[in-house]
Design a protein that fits this description.
By secondary structure, this protein is an alpha/beta fold. The protein contains 20 helices and 14 strands. The chain has a six-stranded mixed sheet, sandwiched between helices.
């Protein structure tokens, strides 16, 4: 990447939406602009986990304002990440469809573990280089992430459904601060976070860091009261708890360092933070400068090249974990990508990479059962938490794996997208051509696309030399009938 390139990250959090713009320079990203709006989307989830129209509208309005700033940014230079509220929302597709149109860029809903990984990357890149063993804590609106790591490598990641917005709504809904409410909130938080004790016990880390909104707000308030700047201690938490109890209600809080957008959720956030201090034996926590949005920016750098794209490493790990035949997977991938490049001589790196990943993983379900292994493989990809991938990316891979054999019509919705149809066509043809699990004879074989019709041609005599392959290709022509796409195979 050239020095001076601008990158942008959008963090769609449960409490706030944030836009971070940075300039790449010599391996680092320097902040150019930062925008934050309190959207409180997490408050818009009803008992059935549907987002209210009002909450969605607040989000769309904010994204429209961000979009004006991002109007000149290429797609590859923007990463928009949505977290717990949209992970929970049953009607998230309604929000995402319009949200992507308004923002002008795709929005990735990431798993809790992927969110934790990105948080750690953001924190680590803004800390001095050190071999210290770190505990990183991020208390969000509806989830809390915990990470153990050294340098830029996270070694354990976890996400828990407890956060400042959710706990404030549940235990301080009337805006009143009482000893009983704080006790109930802390006990409930410990009940959710209790399983973290096994992995995040005090002997597994040396320094604790806190990232993002709640911890940043607490750090500002205790620093304004005279405690060491950038550091949160048990004494500081006790002082803050006592001040909130003295105020008795949200409306009466008068504390230097408390920003207005944090007022309504400080009770829930403080309860979760105190619970973590008690559970994990934390005596003091340093306030980190990095957060999810910085992690998303650095992730854009890694995605620039196949060799640094974490998703490639993740796919290799899945191949090993599910005992996929690596030689055959590589063979199918090579043929599928070659066909793809015949149709699209200059494909985007990401499109080709995704086809390669799907080909590498097309037999992932065989470890479960060879019968309907494509369905098992799709299920694995749709229901796994793996590093580097957003949920929609895993869905795309799952759809390709599901569609690489059997009827094509089962993917009717996905086939409306030309790039998906091309990827699926190339994958299916590669699987058919490699049916004997050896390198096929591709001399004189070509694939082209005219409108919605794919044309496959072979040299004279190819069909008689490889009758089983020719039969499979004729079957493939039938499989694409009654879809928006046609396949015509010229097999002399």
């Amino acid at each position: 990447m050239q020095n001076g390139t601008l990158l942008a990250a959008v963090d769609l959090g449960s409490n706030s939406f944030r836009l971070e713009i940075g300039r790449y320079a010599h391996g680092h990203i320097q902040r150019v602009e930062y925008l934050k709006e309190t959207v409180r989307q997490g408050n818009g989830l009803d008992r059935e986990h549907n987002l209210s129209f009002e909450a969605m509208q607040r989000g769309w309005d904010c994204l429209a304002r961000f979009a004006e700033r991002l109007a000149d940014f290429p797609r590859a230079r923007v990463r928009a990440v949505a977290t717990q509220t949209l992970r929970e929302a049953r009607n998230r597709e309604e929000f995402l469809q319009r949200g992507c149109e308004v923002l002008g860029h795709p929005i990735d809903v990431v798993s809790g573990l992927e969110e934790a990984r990105l948080i750690y990357q953001g924190v680590a890149h803004l800390l001095p280089q050190s071999n210290e063993r770190r505990l990183v804590v991020d208390i969000g609106g509806r989830s809390t992430e915990l990470i153990l790591g050294e340098q830029f490598t996270p070694q354990a990641v976890a996400s828990f459904r407890v956060g400042s917005v959710a706990w404030s709504s549940r235990y301080f809904a009337d805006g009143q601060f009482t000893q009983q409410a704080f006790a109930a909130a802390e006990i409930a938080a410990k009940a959710v976070l209790d399983e973290a004790l096994v992995t995040y016990r005090p002997d597994t880390w040396e320094v604790a860091y806190g990232s993002s909104g709640t911890i940043g707000a607490v750090g500002d308030m205790v620093a304004a009261a005279g405690y060491p700047e950038g550091m949160i201690s048990r004494a500081g938490l006790d002082w803050l708890s006592e001040r909130l109890l003295r105020a008795q209600s949200v409306d009466k809080i008068r504390l230097e360092g408390l920003k207005e957008d944090r007022r309504a959720v400080i009770g829930g956030g403080l309860s979760v933070l105190r619970a973590l201090f008690d559970l994990l034996g934390i005596d003091e926590m340093r306030v980190a400068q990095g957060a999810l949005r910085q992690g998303a920016l650095y992730d854009l750098l890694d995605r620039e090249q196949p060799e640094t794209d974490l998703r490639t490493t993740t796919v290799q790990g899945l191949v090993q974990s599910f005992a996929v035949d690596p030689i055959h997977a590589e063979r199918v991938s090579r043929i599928a990508c070659a066909l793809f490049q015949q149709v699209t001589p200059s494909p985007t790196g990401t499109a080709l990479r995704k086809l390669n990943w799907a080909a590498q993983l097309h037999e992932i379900g065989c470890r479960i059962s060879h019968s309907d292994y494509h369905r098992h493989g799709a299920y694995i990809l749709e229901n796994t938490d793996v590093a580097g991938f957003a949920q929609h990316e895993l869905h795309r891979l799952g759809s390709l794996v599901l569609g690489h054999r059997g009827k094509v019509r089962k993917l009717e919705t996905d086939l409306t997208e030309p790039s998906f149809a091309l990827q699926l066509m190339c994958l299916r043809l590669a699987v058919a051509l490699c049916h004997a699990r050896r390198d096929p004879d591709l001399e004189g074989l070509s694939l082209s696309l005219n409108g919605n019709q794919f044309a496959l041609k072979t040299r004279a005599g190819w069909a008689s030399s490889y009758p089983q392959s020719a039969h499979l290709l004729r079957e493939e022509m039938l499989a694409w009938q009654r879809t928006p796409w046609d396949l015509v195979a010229d097999l002399p």
